[in-house]
Amino acid sequence: MTSLWDRSRQVAVQAILDTALRLFAEQGYEQTTIAQIAREAGISQRSLFRYFGTKEDLVCGDQDALGELLKQTVEQQPAEVSAWDALRAGFEVLLTANHTPERALELSRLIFDTPALHARYIEKRLRWQAALVPVVQARLGAAPGPTPDPRAKAIVATVFACADSATELWATHDGRLDLADLYAQCLAAVRGRS
Amino acid sequence: MTSLWDRSRQVAVQAILDTALRLFAEQGYEQTTIAQIAREAGISQRSLFRYFGTKEDLVCGDQDALGELLKQTVEQQPAEVSAWDALRAGFEVLLTANHTPERALELSRLIFDTPALHARYIEKRLRWQAALVPVVQARLGAAPGPTPDPRAKAIVATVFACADSATELWATHDGRLDLADLYAQCLAAVRGRS
DNA sequence: GCCTACCTGGCAGTTAATGCCAACTAGGCG
DNA sequence: CGCCTAGTTGGCATTAACTGCCAGGTAGGC
Lengths: 194, 194
Known about the structure:
Arc Repressor Mutant, subunit A; DNA-binding; 10 helices; homodimer; Tetracycline Repressor, domain 2; mainly alpha
């Protein structure tokens, strides 16, 4: 059922993405205009905005799909797995599903170096967090009462904070360190006695 | 040495801020234009942008001073205070220094309900985090070596994650719960054995 | 009383983003 | 095959956030 439209759409999306990422890497995010991307990708400005609603989505757009994957992975962990371990499992799935390491590194650097992108990225991440809170809450076996239970929210936020710290360290060291290992170190610093 | 210029500047800033916040509360952030704020505040659009570099700064602007206050408070804690306690002390100072509770609640709701503002707020918060990492690292007594120490970064990120979770809970419950208490609960959920 | 320094306002221009409309194209149907 | 419909594309105009520039004004030192 993949019509010709769907296929050419895929091709166009990829072409736009490649052009944009190349230009961002060459001249920086702020210095690259939508007009230039559209011109070099051989598409009208108007259509570019139909594919990607905002300039930031050119970088952070495909995060949405990853968020869904993360949620499903956490949900499908066996019931006896703790909330912390379930979230770690989800995080590890993301690592393999992301892109090639080089691409992920390039994207990470772009995001961490560009305040506007960083903010947008975190905004998307916050939506993942909100979606994960009920999942984690169920795993904690809490009865939702009148006084809300901050535990699930805090745990999810902390896991993301550690994942973010680990990713930033990984990016600033050009990917030479092991990301999963950095994540474990971050979590240990938080949860261990100190 | 407060010249007339400084004073009228203060007055102007306050007038703009009051007008902007009122309009944001009445019609929402996105629906309010800079032109309208300038008109109702009796100032030119050009000068408004000189006082506040961006529209978002009308809401998140004074966060900068708070960040500096936070950093200094944490720095000035006695040496025997742990990193966690020093950060908590800083957070508590922020609570009292903020504004009136009503104003803080109104601002919090505006920020949490407006994606663009939320992103901007987090962006500023990230700068606080970066400034705090060396302070916390010194308190951890770590010798910065070739292999970086993720602990300070992770601890700071976690404290902010918990503070953010607590603030969001506090705002969604109209300020009826105690913010410091919520923060303690969040941190306990993360650091306690579970 | 003048002069310098700074502040203010208007104007034009750039960039991201949106709505509208006309031209086009794929794919179904007689 | 020829048409028709639906979905797509591109150009044009518009809005809103910003920025640079320049002319005018005002406070404060000399």
